[in-house]
Each structure stands twice: as C-alpha cells, then as structure tokens.
Automatic annotation (TrEMBL):
Keywords: DNA-binding. Residues 37-56 bind DNA. This is TetR/AcrR family transcriptional regulator. It comes from Tistrella mobilis. It holds the Pfam family TetR_N.
Length: 90
C-alpha cells in the first residue's frame, strides 16, 4: 500500500522547503552566490545538510528555484504596479 501524506505532513514539507529557500536567499545576500554552501544553508535553516537534498537533488537545483521564485515575485510586483492608476494619464 502506498503512503499517503496527510494535509499536516504536506504543510510541514512545504514549510521546510520554504525555510531552505529563505536561508539560501539570505545567504546569497550576505556572502554572495559563490559563498553559499550546503552546510551554511543547513545551519541557517536549522536542518541537517542531508535534508536539503530531500527537497532539491543538487545545489544547482536549489539555486535555480531561488532565482525562479525571486523572478516570479518581481513579475507579480511589476504586474500589480502596472495595473494601478498612476500619473501617466490614467
């Protein structure tokens, strides 16, 4: 029989994934992209280093997700700003 995740389990997994992404973003801001190491991400997120790889198969995949989520956030902010009436004749 296959294991079924409960809503609580899914919530905790999503929360941990977000913690890893947040820790990575903060480290990039603090030490630069080249200074980020899985050990540092794990320490900042309060998890074991191996846990990172349960969520992201490689550090490259983690970096890609950090940049993807940042780009989506920026895009959403741009769309929201463009939809607001402004001083440009609207």
């Amino acid at each position: 029989m296959a294991y079924r995740q409960t809503p609580e389990t899914r919530r905790r997994l999503a929360e941990r994934r977000m913690m890893i992404l947040k820790a990575t973003r903060e480290l990039i801001a603090e030490v630069g992209f080249r200074g980020v190491r899985s050990r540092l991400v794990a320490e900042k997120a309060g998890i074991s280093e191996g846990t990172i790889y349960r969520y992201f198969p490689t550090m490259t995949a983690l970096y890609a997700e950090v940049f993807r989520t940042a780009a989506l956030r920026e895009l959403a902010a741009s769309v929201e700003a463009a939809d607001r009436p402004g001083p440009h004749g609207e």
